[in-house]
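Continued from yesterday's entry.
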Amino acid sequence: KVDTIVNAGGDNDSGIDLATNDQILLKVANATRLTMNATGQTTIVGEGGTTTTNLQQGLAKQWFNNSSGASPRDSFNVSGITDNQTGDDTYSYTNNMNDANHAVVPAGWRDHDHYHAANETMLSTSSSRVRAYVRGGNSTVDSGFKCCAVFGDLA
C-alpha cells in the first residue's frame, strides 16, 4: 500500500510506469473510485457512487459559444468558423474526429422565435455545419446566441 507517490529521481517522470496489462486503482474507504489502464482508458465512479463513466467517451471533444458568423465568445477545439450564409456556419476542428459519425448538439435563440439544428449530412471528420432556422420554417437566420457541443472519438 502506498500513501504518497514522490518523484525522487528529479526528472519529469511521475514515478508510475505501467506494464501492458497493469492498471491504477484509486480507492477511497476501500471502494474503487477511479481505474486507469496502460492505454490511458480512465473510468470514474459517478455522482451516485454506483455507476461508472468512461472519461474519454463522456467528454465533449469540441464546443463553442458565439453569435452567427462571429469569433466565438469562448470555445474548445475550434480552429476556425466559416460564415456560409445567413444563419449557416461551419466550425472547423483543431483536432479532427475519428470518423463522421459523431454527435453534434446545437442550441441557441434569437428573440425567442428561432432555434438551431445541425445539418447531419454536412458532418465530416474535420468540421460540423450548424444552421439556425426560423421556428416553424425552413429559412435560416443569424442568431444572437449559438452554442454547440460535439461528442465522439478523436482521431
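--- second protein ---
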Amino acid sequence: LLQRPDDAELINLLGAALVERSRFAEAEARFREASELNSALADPRARLGWLLYERQGKAAEAKQLLEQALAIDPDHEKARYTLGLVHQREGALDSAALVFARLLERIPSAEAHRQLGLVYLQQGDLEQATKALREAERWWPYDHQVLVGLGQALA
C-alpha cells in the first residue's frame, strides 16, 4: 500500500482485514475509498453493503450498494447472499426467495439452500422449505438452523 497508495483492490483488502479486527469505522472508510477509486470493482460495494446492514442496520443504503455490486458482477456471491438476507430480515420474503434462488442457479451453496428453505418456511410453503432444507442438510448435516427449520417444516 505504501508503494501503491491508489490501488483500490489493496485498499479493499485492507478494509476486509479491518473488519476481521472489528475496526468497522476504518473498514467503512476503506471500502468507500476503494469504491471511489475504481468504479468497476464490485467487492468493495458488496463488503460495504454487508457492513452497513450488519453493523449499522442501514437497509436502504445497503440494498443500493449490493445492487450496484451485482450490476458490476452478477456472480458476486457475497453481494447476492447479503441482499437476500436484507430482504428476508426486512420482511420482503418474495424478493428474498428470488435472490436466493438466483444465487443457487449461479453458485450452489449450503448457505443459500438454508436461507431459501427458511424463507419458504416463513412463507408457510412447507413442501418447498423441506426440499431446500434437505439440500442444505446434505451439505451441512449438523447446522442448527437447518435442523430446527426441518423440524418446523416436518412437524
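The radius of gyration is 17 Å. The CA atoms of residues 132 and 146 lie 9 Å apart. Will compare against the first tomorrow.
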